[in-house]
């Protein structure tokens, strides 16, 4: 069973979210403020698969809680919940911190559940319309466009597939996949899979499934 740590000061929301995720066979642990969640992590009382944090909370907001969580558990898969335009001023800092995705509170039950499942598979989640509203700082030039094969590989990386799985899908060697990835990194001016997915998403090179 997937275990989710939900942190939100709004008790009505946590109660409703817990019931939603329970329908999708997820065990939800609820905390109503950041320090309570951090104490849980420091004591290593339970294993958490996904961390679901509200962005705006009194005392410690979602960004601050994410940073402290990643200090304790660097591999944590953190998803930030937000409403409306409040995410904009935090977006870049959340990405830099290592947050894996975002859930708009207006999402349907199935969209929330699928977002969590995609995050577990290694996907980076960006809600439809969010990136179009943000000011993008990309300098990708015309002569650096990705080839069809590179776009296909980038899409598969975004879905959480390993190099071996991508090689099997595209009927090529893993070394060939690695070569294409190095070309993708160079064109996007990044140095990691995560940053490639982040920038590819910002440039609308990756199709979102959420």
TrEMBL record:
Domain Response regulatory, first and last residues per copy: 3-120
Keyword Phosphoprotein: yes
GO CC annotation, single: cytoplasm
HTH luxR-type domain: residues covered: 139-204
Entries under SMART domains matching the protein: HTH_LUXR, REC
GO molecular function: DNA binding
Keyword terms of this UniProt record: Cytoplasm, DNA-binding, Phosphoprotein, Transcription, Transcription regulation, Two-component regulatory system
Entries under Pfam families matching the protein: GerE, Response_reg
Keyword flag Transcription: yes
Parts of the chain that traverse the membrane: none
InterPro entries per record: CheY-like_superfamily, NreC/VraR/RcsB-like_REC, Sig_transdc_resp-reg_C-effctor, Sig_transdc_resp-reg_receiver, Tscrpt_reg_LuxR_C, WalR-like, WH-like_DNA-bd_sf
4-aspartylphosphate modification, residue list: 54
Entry's localization field: Cytoplasm
A GO biological process held by the record: regulation of DNA-templated transcription
PANTHER family in the cross-refs: TRANSCRIPTIONAL REGULATORY PROTEIN COMA, TWO-COMPONENT RESPONSE REGULATOR
Name by which UniProt lists this protein: Two-component response regulator
Species in which this protein is naturally found: Bacillus licheniformis (strain ATCC 14580 / DSM 13 / JCM 2505 / CCUG 7422 / NBRC 12200 / NCIMB 9375 / NCTC 10341 / NRRL NRS-1264 / Gibson 46)
Upper taxonomic lineage: Bacteria, Bacillati, Bacillota, Bacilli, Bacillales
